[in-house]
């Protein structure tokens, strides 16, 4: 997936200009940067719901445009920041689901088995019969991650998918994401505020600030203390942990 010379705007005001970056298959890219940097806007543009005011987005050489905007999201598993709005269903599907109890929905056994395996992986099997609105924020976030995977997408665009998760589930989600990115050769882009999670799990980190790409590369290259201090406006120290990974600390 490729973004070339994108201008992204809100209400006619550009928030990103000349933004170019590539996302390769089998690669997990963490998109990091301060609040308001433009991460969500970029993800929504890649998903096809926020048309750029200039530039080009393409997947396997096919450019996103008016002709394919409606079918574009079919190849993508998208998880927005606000999981209350993340049902990923069309209006028609939502209405039809009102009859789910009486419709005798025909699902292939394999699809049910796959959904059950995803639920089991995230400790959700016991909750399968519960209403979504009765779940905790973190449980709901895991359900929507499972939903994004159940679509069997080629591209995963995840906007802060771990923001409501405890330590164990954060690691579980990121490990699963990394494993499936490799096993299914996915293009995975995940917005994270936790730079240590990005350092630990991502193949590459893209650092966005004020709409501009400030660094792109392996965590040890992209997450440099001077850059992070400059864009976040706090002192930052980057250390090597005993296993050779990175440890990013804000200085108080
Ligand atoms: N619907 C909108 N109308 C006008 N401005 C918007 C809109 N959505 C976002 N913006 C502005 O665009 C800029 C980028 O916002 P965006 O949500 O992409 O940032 P972000 O990096 O995802 O931030 P956060 O980490 O806080 O989620 C911000 O200045 C924001 O105020």
From TrEMBL:
<keyword id="KW-0067">ATP-binding</keyword>
<dbReference type="InterPro" id="IPR003593">
    <property type="entry name" value="AAA+_ATPase"/>
</dbReference>
<dbReference type="Pfam" id="PF00005">
    <property type="entry name" value="ABC_tran"/>
</dbReference>
<dbReference type="InterPro" id="IPR027417">
    <property type="entry name" value="P-loop_NTPase"/>
</dbReference>
<protein>
    <submittedName>
        <fullName>ABC transporter ATP-binding protein</fullName>
    </submittedName>
</protein>
<feature type="domain" description="ABC transporter">
    <location>
        <begin position="1"/>
        <end position="235"/>
    </location>
</feature>
<dbReference type="GO" id="GO:0005524">
    <property type="term" value="F:ATP binding"/>
</dbReference>
<dbReference type="InterPro" id="IPR003439">
    <property type="entry name" value="ABC_transporter-like_ATP-bd"/>
</dbReference>
<dbReference type="InterPro" id="IPR017871">
    <property type="entry name" value="ABC_transporter-like_CS"/>
</dbReference>
<dbReference type="GO" id="GO:0016887">
    <property type="term" value="F:ATP hydrolysis activity"/>
</dbReference>
<keyword id="KW-0547">Nucleotide-binding</keyword>
């Amino acid at each position: 997936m490729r973004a070339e010379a994108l201008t992204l705007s809100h209400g006619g005001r550009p928030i990103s200009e000349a933004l170019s970056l590539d996302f390769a298959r089998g690669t997990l890219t963490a998109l990091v940067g301060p609040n308001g940097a433009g991460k969500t806007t970029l993800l929504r543009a890649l998903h096809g719901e926020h048309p750029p005011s200039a530039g080009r987005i393409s997947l396997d050489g096919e450019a996103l445009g008016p002709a394919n905007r409606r079918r574009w999201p079919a190849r993508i598993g998208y998880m927005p920041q606000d999981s209350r709005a993340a049902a990923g269903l069309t209006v028609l599907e939502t209405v039809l689901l009102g009859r789910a109890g009486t419709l005798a929905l025909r699902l292939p056994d394999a699809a049910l088995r796959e959904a059950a395996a995803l639920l089991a992986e995230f400790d959700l099997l016991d909750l399968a019969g519960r209403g979504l609105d009765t779940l905790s924020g973190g449980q709901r976030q895991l359900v929507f991650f499972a939903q994004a995977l159940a679509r069997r997408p080629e591209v995963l665009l995840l906007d802060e998918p771990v923001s409501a998760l405890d330590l164990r589930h954060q690691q579980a989600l990121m490990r699963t994401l990394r494993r499936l990115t490799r096993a299914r050769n996915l293009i995975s882009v995940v917005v994270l505020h936790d730079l240590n999670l990005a350092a630990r799990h991502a193949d590459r980190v893209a650092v966005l600030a004020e709409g501009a790409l400030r660094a792109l590369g392996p965590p040890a290259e992209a997450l440099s203390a001077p850059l992070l201090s400059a864009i976040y406006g706090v002192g930052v120290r980057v250390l090597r942990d005993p296993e050779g990974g990175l440890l990013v600390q804000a200085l108080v």
